[in-house]
Amino acid sequence: MLLKFSKSDILNSALVYPETGALGYTILTRSHFIRDSGKDSDTESEDENGETRRTTIYNKLGEVIAEIGWKGKQPIEIVISREKIIGAKGMFGCSSAILSYVLLIHLHIRTFSTPQSRNVLGIPTRFDTEYFWMAAPDALTLLDYDSNQTKGSFHTNSMRVGERFIAAPIPGLGHDYLEFEMHPLASTEELLVSFILMEVLRRSRFNLHTDPSDRSKLWRSTPLANWGRRLRRRSI
User: For the segment 180-212, what is each residue's pLDDT rounded down to a tens digit?
Assistant: First the structure.
């Protein structure tokens, strides 16, 4: 499946099929505040106000298929169809495994062959123990460790040339594309939600926040980010 983001803000964008331009999904993020009446509203911070945000994913018919909710800087609930998951950590494998540079060399993955590329974070999916989201400063991919095949890629600021993607020569000239193969144990909604969580974690992990209005800054101190740091410390 190939989807194109209509905007650079992945939390507020339509996802269209580039071949036809037809709408596939819509992602919207909204916020509101819940004030504690016992506090002075002039001195309350956003976190003290109990700010809540919700990212909602709609299908082409406008039906809600998934939601990500958080309070302050903490993701508190994820809903996929009728399944409720408490915290973003529940979206990923319970294994403490993390693909290290040594393991990547064993897999002969050329894109990780330079010293700079050792800074790679691999987090297992919950639907397949052999599938890992691989986050690097310049890429986010979904890797099938068993077959050593890429099953998903996020192409940022890219241009399509035939069946290939090339980086746009200047920022903002290209579009963002999400490409992935379907998995029999994972719905499209789950793949979209796990992609969003991994992309905002990647941006936080590698300080890729170039837009001060980027909502993914909220994830800098979330349990998911903390979990990623703990995994890195346990890697080879």
Answer: 999 999 999 999 999 998 998 888 888 886 443
Separation of alpha carbons 119 and 44, rounded Å: 38
Q: Which residues of the chain fall below pLDDT 50? A: 36-48, 96-97, 100-117, 210-221, 232, 235-236
Distance of alpha carbon 220 from its chain centroid, rounded? 13
Phi then psi for 126, rounded to 5 degrees? -90, -20
| The two three-digit tokens of residue 65, written as one number | 């298929």
Token digits of residue 33: 């505040």
Q: Do 229 and 154 meet the contact criterion of CB atoms below 8 Å apart?
A: no
Cβ 17 vs Cβ 24: under 8 Å: yes
What rounded mean pLDDT belongs to the chain? 78
Question: Is the distance from CB of 122 to CB of 134 less than 8 angstroms?
Answer: yes
Predicted structure pTM score: 0.76
Residues in the chain: 236
